Structures are given as structure tokens and as C-alpha cells.
């Protein structure tokens, strides 16, 4: 669960960075970059959803293990508040 949780955090950060690039492409009128970023964002969204669903399945079997993994990953990223966001995204009650 820990590896999946870390990958989920990575995907979420990647999407934030790509959203910034997308905003720049729009501001500059760069249609080619905009189209490329939109394709990449769609792919990243699929990865994020897969990881969320996989963690949700694991949580249905062992919620404490997944919860612990989310807390540890948030702490490793020095963002303890992120644990609540991840719990909500995965479907774990706080």
C-alpha cells in the first residue's frame, strides 16, 4: 500500500505541474503544447484513478494498513495534512 500511496502522491504532483504548463500554453496561444499537455493530463488522470481504485480495494480488505501507509507517505513528504486529503480521495473515513 505504501508504494501505491507514494505513486498516487507523485501522480497528483505531476498533474499540478502539468496544469501550470497548460496554463502557460493557453496564455501563449501555443496550440501544439496545449494539445500535448491535454493528452498527458488524460494519461496521468488514468494513472491516478487506477491507484485510487487499487488503494480502495486494499482498504476494503485491510483499512488500517492503507490508512497507516497514507499517514506515513504524507509524513515522508513533510505534509501531514495531506493524509486527510489522501484518505478522502481513497474513500477512507477520517
Helix-strand sequence: HHHH
Overall geometric form: elongated
> Which stretches of 5+ consecutive residues score pLDDT under 50?
none
- Mean pLDDT rating: 93
Strand content range: under 5%
**Total helical segments:** 4
Going by helix content, strand content and strand pairing, the class is mainly alpha
The helix content is over 70%
State the end-to-end distance: 17 Å
**Computed CA radius of gyration, to the nearest angstrom:** 15 Å
Number of strands: 0
Main beta-sheet annotation: none
3D structure, described in words:
- It contains 4 helices and no strands.
- The chain has helices at 2-28, 31-61, 63-76, 82-90.
- The chain is elongated.
What is the gist of this entry?
The protein is an all-alpha fold and 94 residues long.
Write a concise keyword list for the protein shown above.
94 residues; single chain; mainly alpha
What is the topology?
Layout: H1 2-28, H2 31-61, H3 63-76, H4 82-90
